């Protein structure tokens, strides 16, 4: 398969409502063959499914509950959202290629007590169980929680996971590599440090944009066509041709998300 796969993208974000057709068109022109549309909360699921029907074989859904929810919501909202999400995940189990995005976010402004961290853990544990039952990989967020996330996934016996925009230590990432996990690199890597890209082998790497977030420039809307920025950066750091980065990361994505191939062809 010739082209890029964006393994983690928020194409259902309001930022794309006004020009979604152009954004998809430009993504295809830039060499993308598919993008994985991840969810943050249950209220977004139907929109993602609708987008996947509007752009069949290109917008590929992942459904899950993100650890960071609207701070305006009362505590416990995370668990309530999981309750709302579960029936929908079952309903759409044949339409999705992964559970996500899920994970842990221990940034102090997000969570500042053990109870909050514990509800994040519970929500991740439940979704890891569902993923196992449905035989689906996890699309994982971790922020200021690299070690707790990798350790929890391993403890839970998770075999198939993508760690997106990983901000933990490279040594912790390598524990994930040993467990068979993949790491996806967003375009914001150009304004970050090189250590992760240096350490993690290309054979354990995927591409992502996390659009509209994590673009090459702060405060500017990121778009899926920026996937080439991630690929070019990896090629430079690894000292390999761009084509090789495209080929290996796409093969990795197809291996990690086994249902993806059939979706792209369909
Ligand atoms: Zn994300």
Explain what the structure shows:
The chain is an alpha/beta fold and 266 residues long. It is 42% helix and 16% strand. The chain has helices at 20-29, 45-54, 77-91, 114-134, 146-155, 170-178, 195-199, 227-238, 242-256, 260-265; strands at residues 4-9, 32-37, 59-63, 98-105, 138-143, 161-164, 182-185, 205-207. Strand 1 (4-9), helix 1 (20-29) and strand 2 form a beta-alpha-beta unit. It is globular and about 45 Å long. The two termini are 14 Å apart. It binds zinc ion.
Characteristics of this structure?
266 residues; alpha/beta; 8-stranded parallel beta sheet; 10 helices; 42% helix; 16% strand; globular; binds zinc ion
Q: What overall form do the CA principal axes indicate?
A: globular
Can you summarize the main beta sheet? 8 strands, parallel
Helix vs. strand class: alpha/beta
Helix content: 40-55%
Strand order of the largest sheet: 1-2-3-4-5-6-7-8
First-last Cα distance: 14 Å
Number of strands: 8
Q: Cα-atom Rg, whole angstroms?
A: 17 Å
- Give the bound compounds: zinc ion
